[in-house]
Amino acid sequence: MIRGHLGVLVAVAILIAGYADQPVINTGEPPAPPATGSANATPSTPPSNAHLVNAYDYVGHAGETTGYYFTTPSGKWRCAILAHTKAGCQASSSWRSGLGITGEPDSVPDAAGQDATPNAIVVDREGDPQFVALEQPDFWLDPGPGNALQFNRILAAAGFRCNVQESGVSCQSEATGKGFTFSAEGFTPQYTDVPASAP
What is the pTM assigned to this prediction? Predict the structure, then answer.
């Protein structure tokens, strides 16, 4: 029995020596089981890239901040991806005004911790989507507005992706997969992808 195992080991050693300079294609070991738990969970379907636009058509600078600015086809919302930081939208009527989204909170804490009317919807690189009270027009290009992002087109840049569909505006952090979808009729804390079959 031991002699049989030694013979197999010698044969394997000779085989390995003969192929030492060749790349290993298959080790013969079963693949590791997938990680479990929500911390390591990834979306079962990756976001579609079927309708990407050229991000350079939307790039702009506000002071030292580089962003990818767009408006919705209706002109109701001004939105932006701020490079590797956040993506979000504000009303086109005035960046200081409330959003007028059904179901939005009456107030949120501002930078000083005081109650304020939300004037933007945002998803950070690592955080959850949320309504916020900004003290400046983060998502407005000045001079602007930014180019319109047409229906069923995807703007993907600097760690985020956004799109506009008949159902509303949607943005997502590609680092976490967290995002939002909103229109005047409501808000969902989830990114809505453009179907690959969309026109």
Answer: 0.76
